[in-house]
Design a protein that fits this description.
The protein is an alpha+beta fold. It is built from nine helices and 14 strands. The longest helix is centred in the last third of the chain and has 19 residues. The protein is elongated, with a radius of gyration of 22 Å. The termini are far apart. The structure holds biotin. Biotin binds next to helix 5, strand 5, strand 8 and strand 9.
Length: about 325
């Protein structure tokens, strides 16, 4: 049964009080007073927080205390929303243990006129989708899979810019928070040692001169170990854990990404900001300057990637002259 708003508010208030008094025991009486509700209602909200994986300890006769959340592996929507309070773009987190695809969940909300800034997060997708009609596989409770509802002032031909902004934000998060040398591969992959760590998929609906909404979905391999990666993709896939040698709290990675992504989105939608974002992407994209193989539909081209157009397409100098690819699969060739 869906939880009512009141229950969600109680959970949020209790989490806030525990979080803002680290290590302290918060008396139940203070919580009941603050929530203007009964001990029973407080207990129920505490249980709901625990169900989300938040480590709330009961101290008999005294109250409640929050245990360390630094290494928490669970994804608690109440906790994530708390950490999104300073985020100018995101404010709501929907967590599902399982769904068909978070892209679908967000599209449905977009069609119901939901405001931008909602995030759908899951552990398992039965119809997880990747680019070009491929599927996206993951492993429960190890990785991050989420989609975001955006309503940017962009034209449909500029949707690729969302992938570039998200790619920059993932790369920066993985480098700064996790200390791994993540690289951006055009159009929207994040690699480490030439193996894929993260994929990004943006889809939009609109009319010729404006987008009604866009859904940007992201899959990041976070805590999978080598043995967790299926044999058929072990040569081309990796995870943050494999690259860094340690596990990461997924909630922290998510919140840090969302902060950075909101920053890149604000740059993208500011006056003259798209050109600035593109300049950052050109400098940060590992594909530029590389010899590459480009697969588009049934055709294969080789050449050197030289630039990104203002719409985010890739410019490649081939034997047959300059070609521009709005969408394609790219393979980096090893330089001699
Ligand atoms: C790709 O590299 O092909 C893009 C992969 C995008 C996967 C994510 S996981 C969360 C969201 N839901 C989906 O069904 N796909 C995206």
């Amino acid at each position: 049964m869906a939880k009512t708003n009141d229950e969600a508010t109680s959970r949020a208030m209790i989490f806030e009080m525990l979080m803002e008094n680290p290590g302290e025991i918060i008396p139940s009486s203070l919580l009941t007073q603050k929530l203007s509700s009964s001990r029973q209602a407080v207990f129920k909200a505490v249980c709901a927080l625990r169900d989300e994986g938040v480590p709330v300890e009961s101290i008999p006769q005294r109250g409640y205390r929050l245990d360390g959340i630094e290494d928490l592996q669970k994804l608690s929507p109440t906790m994530i929303e708390y950490f999104l309070r300073g985020n100018p773009l995101f404010n709501r987190c929907i967590y599902m243990r399982e769904t068909d695809s978070t892209q679908k969940v967000i599209k449905k909300l977009a069609l119901q006129e939901a405001e931008a800034g909602v995030l759908a997060l899951t552990e398992r997708q039965s119809e997880g989708r990747g680019r070009r009609g491929r599927s996206w596989q993951s492993l429960d409770e190890k990785n991050l899979m989420f989609s975001m509802l955006l309503r940017p002032a962009l034209k449909p031909g500029e949707v690729q810019l969302l992938n570039l902004a998200a790619g920059l934000a993932v790369k920066e998060t993985l480098r700064e928070l996790c200390g791994i040398p993540a690289e951006l591969k055009w159009p929207n992959d994040i690699l480490c040692r030439d193996r894929k760590l993260c994929g990004i998929l943006s889809e939009a609906s609109g009319e010729p001169d404006r987008i009604y909404y866009a859904v940007t979905g992201i899959g990041i391999n976070v805590n999978m170990e080598s043995a967790d990666i299926p044999d058929d993709i072990s040569a081309v896939a990796t995870s943050v854990c494999i690259e860094s040698g340690r596990q990461f709290a997924r909630w922290k990675l998510l919140v840090e990404f969302l902060d950075r992504f909101a920053g890149f989105m604000s740059l993208l939608t500011s006056r003259g900001g798209a050109a600035k974002l593109l300049a950052l992407y050109r400098t940060g994209c590992d594909t530029i300057g590389k010899d590459i193989r480009v697969m588009q539909d049934e055709e294969v081209f080789t050449g050197r990637a030289t630039d990104i157009t203002p719409e985010g397409a890739l410019v490649v100098q081939t034997g047959e002259g300059e070609k521009i690819f709005a969408a394609a699969d790219v393979h980096h060739l090893r330089m001699a």
